[in-house]
Write a structure and sequence with these properties.
It contains nine helices and ten strands. The protein has 245 residues and is α/β, with parallel strands linked by helices. It has a six-stranded mixed beta sheet, with helices on both faces. A four-stranded antiparallel beta sheet has the order 2-1-4-5, with helices on one face. β4 and β5 form a beta hairpin.
C-alpha cells in the first residue's frame, strides 16, 4: 500500500547554539488532517523546532517540506501565505491596535485577503475564541489569558492548512481547558492539520492522534499518545519518575 505524502515534513534537521544541541538529524512528518502533539522537558528544543518550521530560525542542515515542496529557504511571511500558521508561547499582539484589527492584519497579510472581505470571518473567529465582546479593545490591555486567545485567533485568521500551537493551554482553568479542547476539535473538523506543543498533558491527550517526545535533540518516542505517556523511558525522562519505580 502506497502511503500519501505528508503535508509537512522535516528531513534530517539539525540545529546547534554553540555547544547546545537542540536538534540532531530530526525527522518529522504530519499527515493531512492529523493532530500531532510534542512534549519534552523545558529546554528540549520544542519552540526552536516551531521556529524552524515557521522560518524564523534556519536549520544548520536538513530540509523543511510542505506539500512536497522544499520551503527551507522561504521567509516566515512566504510560509504563512502557503498555509502555515502559528501561535507563540509568549503572546505578541499589535498592542496599539484593537483585537479586531489584529485579526484583520493577519487575514490580509497572512491570508492574502482584502481587509473588507475578511471582516465577517474575523468576527466569527473572535466569537469562537471567546473574544467577540472585546473586539474593540486595544490588544495591549488584554489579560494574559485573553492575549493567548488572541494568539490562537490571529493564527486562524490567516486560514492555515497547518496550525502550530505553542503552549496555548498554559494558565487556563479546567473549564477554559475544556473550551479549548472543544475549539481544537472544531478546528480539526474544518480540515486543518495541527502540531501542538503543550505541558498541560490532559488537554493534549484529548485532542491529538499521535505523540512525539523530544529530549536532548532527538525524538525518543513516537506513537499512540496514551501508550507513549505510559512508556517507562518517557516517565523517567519527562516526568522525573524512575523507570523501575
Amino acid at each position: 500500500m502506497i502511503m500519501p505524502a505528508p503535508l509537512l515534513a522535516l528531513e534530517q534537521i539539525s540545529k546547534r547554539f554553540g555547544a547546545i544541541v537542540v536538534a540532531e538529524r530530526l525527522d518529522l512528518y504530519l499527515g493531512q488532517g492529523e493532530a500531532l502533539g510534542i512534549i519534552g522537558p523545558n529546554g528540549a528544543g520544542k519552540t526552536t523546532l516551531f521556529a524552524i518550521i515557521s522560518g524564523t530560525i534556519a536549520p544548520d542542515s536538513g530540509r523543511v517540506l510542505y506539500a512536497g515542496r522544499d520551503i527551507t529557504g522561504l521567509s516566515p511571511a512566504q510560509r504563512c501565505a502557503l498555509g502555515i500558521g502559528r501561535s507563540f508561547q509568549i503572546p505578541q499582539p499589535f498592542s496599539g491596535m484593537s483585537v479586531f484589527e489584529n485579526l484583520v492584519v493577519a487575514a490580509a497579510f497572512g491570508g492574502g485577503r482584502r481587509e473588507r472581505d475578511a471582516y465577517e470571518s474575523c468576527m466569527a473567529i473572535l466569537t469562537r475564541c471567546g473574544l467577540a465582546g472585546k473586539a474593540n479593545r486595544p490588544a495591549g490591555t488584554l489579560t494574559l489569558l485573553d492575549r493567548k486567545r488572541l494568539e490562537l485567533a490571529r493564527a486562524l485568521a490567516s486560514e492555515p492548512a497547518v496550525l502550530l500551537l505553542d503552549e496555548v493551554a498554559g494558565g487556563l482553568t479546567e473549564h477554559e481547558c475544556q473550551a479549548l479542547i472543544a475549539l481544537i476539535a472544531e478546528i480539526r473538523q474544518s480540515g486543518v492539520s495541527i502540531v501542538w506543543i503543550e505541558h498541560v498533558v490532559h488537554a493534549l491527550l484529548a485532542s491529538i492522534d499521535r505523540l512525539l517526545v523530544l529530549h536532548n535533540g532527538a525524538f525518543i518516542a513516537d506513537g499512540d499518545p496514551r501508550a507513549v505517556i505510559r512508556s517507562p523511558q518517557v516517565a523517567e525522562i519527562y516526568m522525573g519518575i524512575e523507570a523501575d519505580a
